[in-house]
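Exam prep: given the inputs below (a chain plus zinc ion), describe the expected output before reading on.
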Amino acid sequence: MNLLTDDFISTNYGKVSLKAILTTDNDYQLQYYFDEIQLAMLQMLSSLATVVLQPDTKQLQYYLANGISGQEYDKRLSEVNSEWFEGDCFMCSAPPADAKNPSAPITKMLSGIECGTSPNAIGLFSEVKHAETICPDCSHVLNYNLHMNIKGECFGPTGATGIRGGGAISTLVAGDDLKQTVLNNVIATDLFTQYSQLDSGADNKPMWVSPLSSDLYQAQKIGLIRGLFALAYHISFPVDDKECHCDVCGTESEQSVTTFIREKYKGNYGSTKTGRDAGAGWWPHPYTPQSVREDGVYAVCARDQNWQSWQELTSYIVGKETDKAMIEPAYIVRQYQEMSGQGRANLLVGGNIADQGSILGRVYDLYSMPSSLSNHLSRVTQVVDAGLSQKDKLSLALNKMFGIGYDKNFVAGIKAQAMHRFVSNTQQIIQSILLDVDRKEAAELRRAAIKELDEEAKLIYSGLQRKYQHDLPLFKALVKGEYLLNKN
Ligand SMILES: [Zn+2]
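Solution:
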């Protein structure tokens, strides 16, 4: 099986190849049981398409506008080392001779499903028995997801931190169909070269062809293709000649995989403290927004359980300066703005919310916006700012409850619950208001946002008042705080 030519991608048309997705007009939809795997698949397919096409900006614009013919695909393919993308070697490097090679059940590869024994490793959802056996095709996307999206700590003491830092947020540009989405996230080599400032002699061979050595993995020496599939583990997936029904894609397979064997690489990327302190530098992964601070560059991560992506939307599209950091959009968003064609752009924001060894939540949000984002940025910013300001007002109003001498934790619990409700309900409100961003004037949009968010905050607030109407001190505090909600 070769990832650049063979059918391994699970869709509504059965298993298909990358070539079929890119060169035909079928409306393919990915079919995987877990949204996390869908997201990883989009990242992986766009990265594989980058390997095949390696377009400059002009070529990519051409592909986006006209599509790619089967012939063109084959021609481009003949110019790359497709043998590097054979299923039996893809993202699997040989471990050193003295490696311990611990084996673990495949369940462990699906973050969120607990199967560790460490007390701080808690899975969020799903039953272990829901993911015990997979088909060999799916081992590649699980492997990719592990290397790019899963935080080392969630993997326990044998966990390693990959080139993106683990637990990073991904932003992708979604299109009208799978083909367009994959193409939207293909990386234009000339633009990326300008942006990334890698050494001109940076190694572009995948790490399973020329493995990492040394203790420090200098970012500037890692070329685009090498970085897109950067490794943190020597890993392998023993295949059994035993029929299975795959727990990840749902198809029947003649072979099955139930375990994997891994050994982490010993050195460090600039995504770790050790690597950062030693000057390894941050490798500019194209799908990761970054936070530039005084002491180095970090991947932007989802923050806590109550976090919703709208709060950071502005920084994912335009960037944002805070007192501690400068948040910069992912390269792919910049590329999109630079090249933007017609139609709507949909920004897909995804990732895990991890805390130490635990996965606390998931982010998988789609924002629909016009492609000419740059003309509308201030409108997006205004809508998000209206949400943030309403959130502040609600928080201030609720703070009145702290002045009545009740147990702090009790009051904090009431407040946290109300804030959580506001932030998560606002997620939908903002997503729906942004749908109109190219049809409505900025002032009108802002008014609409303020009105809806105001109603939402008041609804939550009056709900609390009703709930505590018989608890006089609390009720009075809430009445006292009410004017703060109405303040402009
Ligand atoms: Zn499968």
